[in-house]
Design a protein that fits this description.
By secondary structure, the chain is an all-alpha fold. 48% of the residues lie in helices and 0% in strands.
Length: 82
């Protein structure tokens, strides 16, 4: 197998380069605050980019409006079920 530049070792062409949870999502749990959903997607992007300072800022923003459903959705986006 030939590695694809910019992907982890062992990842070849046609194989996912990272966790599925880091792919863009179009929806979260029904009834979730749209601001929470937007914050979660920004957190996922910041994690993908490795931007620790931005992650901290976004988590603080999310904490102000998140409920349990939003926190579980964030977990799902970062660590998809297998």
């Amino acid at each position: 197998m030939t590695a694809v530049p910019g992907t982890p070792a062992g990842v070849g062409p046609g194989e996912p380069a990272g966790p599925a949870g880091l792919d863009p999502a179009t929806a979260g749990p029904a009834g979730m605050d749209p601001r929470a959903r937007e914050a979660i997607e920004h957190i996922v992007q910041a994690v993908r980019d490795g931007d620790d300072a931005h992650i901290r800022t976004l988590l603080a923003d999310l904490a102000a409006l998140a409920d349990i459903a939003a926190l579980l959705y964030l977990r799902e986006r970062l660590y998809p079920p297998r």
